[in-house]
Amino acid sequence: MNEIYAKQILKIFANNPFDSFNHKQISSRVGAHDKGSRQLVIATLQELAEAKILVADKNARGKYKINPKNINDDLLPKNYLIGTIDMKQTGKAYVIPQDENREDVLISANNTHHALHGDTVKVLMFPQRKMHKPEGQVVEVLKRARTRFVGIIQKQDRFAFLISDSRTMVVDIFIPLNELNGAQDGEKVVVEMTDWPERMNNPVGHVVKRLGQPGDNNVEMQSILAEYDFPLDFPKEAEKEAEKIVPPMEKDMEGRKDFRKVTTFTIDPADAKDYDDALSFRRMRNGNYEVGVHIADVSHYVKPGTAIDREAYERGTSVYLVDRTIPMLPEKLCNGVCSLRPNEDKLCFSVLMELNEKAEVLKTWFGKSVINSDTRYSYEEAQEVIDSGAVAHPEHKKTDEAILELHKLATIMRAERYKEGAINFESQEVKFILDENSKPIGVYIKESKEANWLIEEFMLLANKMVAERIGKLPEQKKGDGKKAHAKTFVYRVHDEPNPEKLNTFVEFVGKLGFKMKVGSRQALAHSYNNLFQTIAGRGEEYMIDTIAIRTMSKAYYSTENIGHYGLGFRFYTHFTSPIRRYPDLMVHRLLEHYLGGGASADAEVYEEYCRHCSQMEKRAADAERTSVKYKQAEFLSDKLGETFPALISGVSKWGIYAEIEGNKCEGMIPIGSLQGDYYMLDEDNYQVIGRRFGKTYKLGMPVTIRVKHVDMLKKLIDFELVDEEAEKPARKEKGTRSRKETPKHGSTKAKAETKKGRTAKRGNKKQK
What we know:
Elements: H1 3-15, H2 23-30, H3 35-50, E1 54-56, E2 64-66, E3 80-87, E4 93-97, E5 105-107, E6 120-125, E7 136-143, E8 148-155, E9 159-164, E10 173-176, E11 188-195, E12 204-212, H4 217-227, H5 236-244, H6 250-253, E13 257-258, E14 264-268, E15 277-283, E16 289-296, H7 298-301, H8 307-315, E17 319-321, E18 324-326, H9 331-337, E19 345-355, E20 361-372, E21 375-378, H10 379-388, H11 397-419, E22 429-434, E23 440-446, H12 450-471, E24 491-493, H13 499-511, H14 521-535, H15 541-551, E25 556-558, H16 582-595, H17 603-636, E26 643-651, E27 655-660, E28 666-670, E29 679-682, E30 687-690, E31 696-698, E32 702-711, E33 716-721, H18 724-727, H19 748-755
Parallel strand pairs: 13-20, 14-21
Antiparallel strand pairs: 1-2, 3-4, 3-6, 4-5, 6-7, 8-9, 8-11, 9-10, 11-12, 14-15, 15-16, 16-19, 17-18, 19-20, 22-23, 24-25, 26-27, 26-32, 27-28, 29-30, 30-31, 32-33
């Protein structure tokens, strides 16, 4: 390949990522006018296409386009970069560059060039001013993050607008009256953005689905799903395929290892219906234990390329909102045919392990199986057995005894895992008690106990064993001269902490009198665990736990195995939940393929699958958090004026965030409402400080709050601080503004609200 021509050609394509060119157009632009030079251009184009840097334009024969995956900063002039836009509620934005070594770029509201939150954009950099952040302007939107938005219709005489639910959607969408699809003023809908003409302040769209009236529980839950682009229904083709699937027959069990006479049970949440893992247990003649981890064999029913498979891939995961589950698979599969219900023959993919009394794995077997679960336990029922230390359910004597034996092994495994360098992060899960109308009448924190740990330890072990089975390179024979290569596989990976964040954290806890060793990965893990043990029950516990979690990287899926830092595993994958996670289904297929002697799969294809599944996992987690926030707001909506003990959970220049103790309902105390001083943010120490008298409010500090205002639709809660100062008659400070929503620029609504003199502060991004 001619490197000089290759660089010139790539710059042309990078600067025109949506355009296609043939060899004549490229030859003209690079100055290749003679026959020899043109032949060299043609050859270079072909080689770039073979390397998948360029792709053929399907709509124009003989023309090429740049492969969107290969647009990067290396191809652009120095004063340009490519990144993802992070839109603020004020209309300004930051672009996060693809190159992690470059700083975020500030984009003023009038320089966003029709970009929206999450879009991939090309930025022209401005000359940097001293003591200022890098600044620039968006010159091109390369890829839209989304085109569907949820919100409320605001209807005028001759047109309508969608007022989006999303606080990062800073413009309203213009909708012609003939594109309303019957939607009425004030109704909640889903709108598809179809165009954004260059000279218009607002994008144009049409209503694709009417959801109903705001405030209705079902409408709000559907709105959350639509906001995060999860489908509300399964395609008819997928439903038809599901209807044809039947429970396993004898022919389906041929060639499978039979565990139907082995003591087997499941442990799941009390309200669960999709049981995708079971444990079997028996004592071997040599005194060791045979433990089977049996996982629903979804791959037997869901074949690649089918309508069910395509839909499962698009969803990536099941979504668990407060009052409902949106499954990855049609209900007949997830709650019926695949679910490991008791006293039914079920097809599984199993990991069978022989363990000694020290919980060391001596032998493993991987393969297809058939089971018949004896007992279905809830976590509470299994915990009864562990707490009693004896058979608690005489009708389930064998499985109760199995739980007691497995609990002993799990306890040893858990202790050994932490000894080897796993970090003991204990996450808290908010749960709601709902009435018959799904209204929250109680909130509590779900506590993880030994029954949870039992299942967790054996699932972790099975995932680790599967990853090691495929990921470990075969031993190279002496003198054969061949280099061994690991086969393409899907790993669950977790990178080590960002050094800058880690150093900040170590310095911060050092100020509080706690020392941490950062010399090695294992030393750091032990330091984390010792720190968590030391602060348990102390006032600093909440603050340090919160900041520690934020120093850690996020786990994700990848074909490149970098290990799992938090667990301390060199090899780790997700094998145990194929009913609700698509990566697990991929792992099942790859494992079966490799056990049968199959060649290595295409790493590039599977890396793209991993990237998609990681994105969908994050999106599902965001949707779940949003549903929790909605229910927390609903829970406090009839408690205005009531006071609660709380802990400061975040600080920002706009105010203090506090979480009510016991239910984690979070609200904001506006900075202007703090009486007796002028307060400013101290970001380095996670606190706000009074300028005159030095009073501080820092992360983790206990406070008493009063519920002041609740906006259920925006999922916002306002608190006010209750103390001696706050109880005095409020004196309004000069220049203090009330916390309201800023009108969205470019809309008739914005102009009307501006005329009314409404002012606001938007962009309350908390510093945690």
